[in-house]
Amino acid sequence: MTKPVPPPSLAEAADPRAALRAIGAAARAAARTLANASTEAKNHALTAAAAALRARSGEILAANARDLEAARAKGLAASFVDRLTLNPQRIEAMARGLEEVAALPDPVGRVLATFERPNGLKIERVATPLGVVGVIYESRPNVTADAGALCLKAGDAAVLRGGSDSFHSSAAIHACLVEGLKAAGLPEAAISRVPFASREAVGEMLEGLGGALDVIVPRGGKSLVERVQREARVPVFAHLEGIVHVYVDATADLAKAVKLLVNAKMRRTGICGAAETLLVERAGAERLLAPLVKALLDAGCAVRGDAATQAVDKRVTAASEQDWRTEYLDAIISAKVVENLDAAIAHIETYGSHHTDGIVSEDKAAAEKFLKEVDSAIVLHNASTQFADGGEFGFGAEIGIATGRMHARGPVGVEQLCTFKYRVRGDGQTRP
What we know:
Layout lengths: L15 H19 L4 H17 L1 H17 L4 H7 L3 H16 L7 E6 L5 E8 L2 E6 L4 H12 L3 E5 L5 H17 L7 E3 L5 H8 L8 E5 L2 H10 L12 E5 L5 H13 L8 E7 H17 L3 E4 L1 H6 L4 E2 L13 E7 L2 H11 L4 E5 L3 H10 L4 E4 L19 E2 L7 E2 L6 E8 L7
Parallel strand pairs: 3-4, 3-6, 4-5, 7-8, 7-12, 8-11, 9-10, 9-11, 12-13
Antiparallel strand pairs: 1-2, 2-16, 14-15
Helix pairs in contact: 2-5, 2-7, 3-7, 5-6, 6-7, 10-11
């Protein structure tokens, strides 16, 4: 087996700071063109890029094999390797994602509100692109396609910095996006890629690439997101953790609860919408807790529980205080019996991350109270938390999920990658 070629470091550039700022300046110039690009041109670029992904599938898989060989040589976790792995089905899913983004309505130019003042001024609030979006991500090479496509549709230029672990895969995918841009006559710098994998490149992006970046979106582990939120000199759309809860109340249908819980936890354990804590209402625990825990254990999920949960199955181990605050991203879940809905909401407020939380209940009033009072970006009733995904929301894809309260919250799709301006039309009015 050939030895994987390490990606270039920032130190290898003759003038790394200048190289990165040149990338930013080119993206800024491209953003001015994209802001006024036609819907037809943007869609042509996306569909041509999708065709390139399919045509170059073999090249992409070969590049991915190099990344996977290096990841396994480092002894990286199976969940990490799963996020890194591409196969024909995942490449096809990326291509379809680009086509789905192309099929979305163009968010640019939407009239969000209109009103007329007593003096006759006619005012419109109109959606406009954000400008240049920097995306910093780690092991998921598909983010290259998702982020590039969403930014393009929103009229934004993108500067993509993937991690060293997905370096070759991301480069191969990026080449397909550039092929699409060229086919549509749009500037290649509209979707730019930082060709350095060193952490110093992240620092340069956090400084804004000389004023080129308007917003940064981090996609990766807690340490990356913490660094971005701490050091960025431009606004950030991000979530730090996905400590996701499933609350099952006393009215829940058992079969439905088992199906939803196992899917929420085990469909893919390494994504941010995966359930990490199970809460069961005490009044229904005798009927619900044992079968829920058994279903998880039988599915290969380790359960760490409070005393009540440990009592229903000897395979359950004791949960510590830290478990309630842990995003496992693995086949592990914490479980607890709570007194009632208010106690469940209090637990989520204390330990949650304001990402995604769900209730399983046949009590409509209880469900509505949960949906209203749980302060998370996404709240669900009788649905798996794994639906916390922009594609599942009909956004075509997502550039990330934001848990902040400014501008964007939840899946960040094309609409959230726009801002707005006011257009004011008058007929000679002056202000007294």
